[in-house]
């Protein structure tokens, strides 16, 4: 009878050892999983931050493109005005009318500056 009782104990001890080993492996795998999840969360956060930065830079770029288009249109308009004034000066050939045209131009330009930029919908911005 004592031999029968002693035989289950070694099996029980072996099973307990296997359970302890498996628990240790599970704990190790759980730690690895948590570590990987932390890394993935950090990468997602970095991607979101990068996306936010890129969107902000894209907005600035778009704003600058619109500003450049506006300034180019304004520049062309000024060139046209200057050419027109030069043609008037050449056709009249008098010094006094030249001064008046120049002051007219300055007052017109100053007026445009004070009233603000021209409406942008008239300017087409082509994205590439």
UniProtKB/TrEMBL annotation:
<dbReference type="GO" id="GO:0035556">
    <property type="term" value="P:intracellular signal transduction"/>
</dbReference>
<dbReference type="GO" id="GO:0031674">
    <property type="term" value="C:I band"/>
</dbReference>
<protein>
    <submittedName>
        <fullName>TUFT1 protein</fullName>
    </submittedName>
</protein>
<dbReference type="InterPro" id="IPR051375">
    <property type="entry name" value="Tuftelin_GRINL1A/MYZAP/CCD68"/>
</dbReference>
<feature type="coiled-coil region">
    <location>
        <begin position="12"/>
        <end position="81"/>
    </location>
</feature>
<keyword id="KW-0175">Coiled coil</keyword>
